[in-house]
């Protein structure tokens, strides 16, 4: 029992930077993004792509994918559908608001 609780605490601490970045992106998408309107040439939008990349791959790699996408998004870009790279083994769950939790937090 103590080991399980300790593992949950460690997982939560390891996921804290990822979830803080996710929180910032959620705020950006709700507050700033609507001011610009639908201007992204890609689907999903750059902020959504970055959010999903961080959720799936973590803060460092997800931020890299998001930055690379932003560099491709310019007025002369063709645009189109740009899939998020799927990770083969994803051991977390993404909550309804978008935060990442260890799979041990699943209900049921």
TrEMBL record:
<keyword id="KW-1003">Cell membrane</keyword>
<dbReference type="InterPro" id="IPR002696">
    <property type="entry name" value="Membr_insert_effic_factor_YidD"/>
</dbReference>
<keyword id="KW-0472">Membrane</keyword>
<dbReference type="Pfam" id="PF01809">
    <property type="entry name" value="YidD"/>
</dbReference>
<protein>
    <recommendedName>
        <fullName>Putative membrane protein insertion efficiency factor</fullName>
    </recommendedName>
</protein>
<dbReference type="GO" id="GO:0005886">
    <property type="term" value="C:plasma membrane"/>
</dbReference>
<comment type="function">
    <text>Could be involved in insertion of integral membrane proteins into the membrane.</text>
</comment>
<comment type="similarity">
    <text>Belongs to the UPF0161 family.</text>
</comment>
